[in-house]
Amino acid sequence: MHSKTYHAIHSEEESTKHVFELQLLNFDETIFMEWRKFNGERIQSSIHDAVEDVLKQQLAEGNKIKVCIGTDSQVTGNLTEFATVIVFLKEKRGGFMFIHNEKTSQKMSIKERMLSEASKSVEIAYHLCDLFDQYEVDMEVHVDINTNPNFQSNAALHEAMGYILSMGFAFKAKPEAFASSSCANKVI
User: How distant, in Å, are the alpha carbons of 1, 137, 169, 186 from that of 130?
Assistant: First the structure.
């Protein structure tokens, strides 16, 4: 079961007293991210509500659903564009996806970029994990990291895998990570 956790944050006041605050790691900003369908149609509601509507509809139609979340990126000049996808697989009936794109001018090494991709996918998975638990839907986080050590992206494999697995999510890397390697790659 995935649950949102609280972390103790230590802060020091002027008089050297230590105050401990409980602060919720809050990913509610994902509500305001712009998402779209593959056909370009903008998703009007929060991503949480949109995913819940999909799960309700698909399960009501008798479809067995699996969700795969992945992010890919591409560097063009001084910009790095990220595409994050939520892929809904209907057992023996195809699938569809929701897409979010964003750009940054921040310079990153290949390892930093791969870990940023993993982080973006985990952020969305974490924001939606209560739905996957509630509707008993399997979910995987896919990373566009090669398992072959001859590839540069492999430098981030162990850290990304540890991060995703420690969050309690199923993990897939290349060549099995189609959500990041194929789906997200096509919508950058």
Answer: 8, 10, 12, 28
Reply yes or no on whether the pLDDT at 45 is more than 90: yes
Distance CA 11, CA 6 (A): 16
* Helical H segments across 15-171, by residue range: 47-60, 110-134, 157-166
H or E element in which residue 186 lies: helix 185-186
Mean pLDDT of 96-105: 97
Structure tokens belonging to residue 92: 């023996």
126: nearest Cα among 139, 115, 117: 139
**Does residue 26 carry a pLDDT above 70?**
no
- The domain locations on the chain are 28-186
pTM of the model: 0.82
Among 7, 30, 24, 8, residue whose Cα is nearest residue 120: 30
Q: What sign does the dihedral 64-70-74-79 (CA atoms) show?
A: positive
pLDDT value of position 32:
60
Residue 69 has pLDDT above 70, yes or no: yes
Count of CB atoms within 10 A of residue 103's CB? 12
SS3 41: coil
Q: What is the rounded CA–CA span in Å between residue 12 and residue 163?
A: 29
**CATH number, span 28-186:** 3.30.420
